[in-house]
Amino acid sequence: MNDHNEINGEMLNYQTMRLRDIIAEIVQCCDDRKLYESRKFGLPYSELKCLMLFLGERYLTVKGIAEKLDVAKSRVTTILDRLIEKRFAERIVDPKDARIKLISLTPKGKKKAEQLKDHQRKIHGRLLLEMNNEERKNVLSHLELLRTAMEAVKEQMV
Amino acid sequence: MNDHNEINGEMLNYQTMRLRDIIAEIVQCCDDRKLYESRKFGLPYSELKCLMLFLGERYLTVKGIAEKLDVAKSRVTTILDRLIEKRFAERIVDPKDARIKLISLTPKGKKKAEQLKDHQRKIHGRLLLEMNNEERKNVLSHLELLRTAMEAVKEQMV
DNA sequence: TATGATCGTTCATAGTATGAACAAATTACA
DNA sequence: TGTAATTTGTTCATACTATGAACGATCATA
Description:
Two copies of one chain form a homodimer. Chain A has 158 residues and is mainly alpha-helical.
């Protein structure tokens, strides 16, 4: 019984290191992808992320963008300054409330956002095509399992 | 047959979006963890990563650290300046080659690195304990599958 | 019509990261 | 042995990511 526990402990230790390493590699891959997209689309990644928000909605406020991007409002102001000076977006004052700025994309901005969406769909699609049907389903369900576990552990840590 | 393809197409489309979302959530969790560790250990994350490199080796060069961290040498110089002014590390000139600086940790630095290692082992261990034995094995093998797919897709993109 | 809340901006600050230019040291070779 | 080429780490200019405090303008409300 002691032996049994020890073997299980060894196993768990090995799995722990393996998990740490694989997660690090996956995150690295994702960071590389961000860099790649940044170069490919000629914009800093934070600006690309901001453009993508407008695929779902026509108008957004600074506050709304800050919440969706999970950054401070002042950060959003900067991002929008850059997007606007490059003519990807516009600011107009909300006619119903002069405190609020309604942000929207120019046609140039919308085109960029669409291209980025297509690109991202393509690479995630390719990822799935690297697997067979059975693997696809299993990868997805086990990723979800991992995400759930991560969120549970995060709760324990606060 | 047409129907069949269309249904498969739908399915693939759905899976693509799901994959994108789950990966984004997992990466977000990892970023949160980095922030948490940064606060908990009172050092910028880049400096923590640097400390961790010395768990395997007693001495490292600037060039070696740059390769392991995958950043420019000038970045390493900055990180080391900070670690050294906080007395976590030291620079000595290689007696065999005066161009080379041998970097090592002070006892204070080693202690910090050990604490960080313990913490990371703990949280990855907890992650595994959120699952049963079967799930653990499957999560690991499917993460590896995903990583392999990611690397394959990355190759296609260069 | 005061006052309290909300909204977006400005500013100071810090962290992450690169690449060009450079000085010092070493290696290679003619 | 002396010179050219290479290696090593640093400095500096630049850019990107991000926060939080302070602030002015505007709005809701009492």
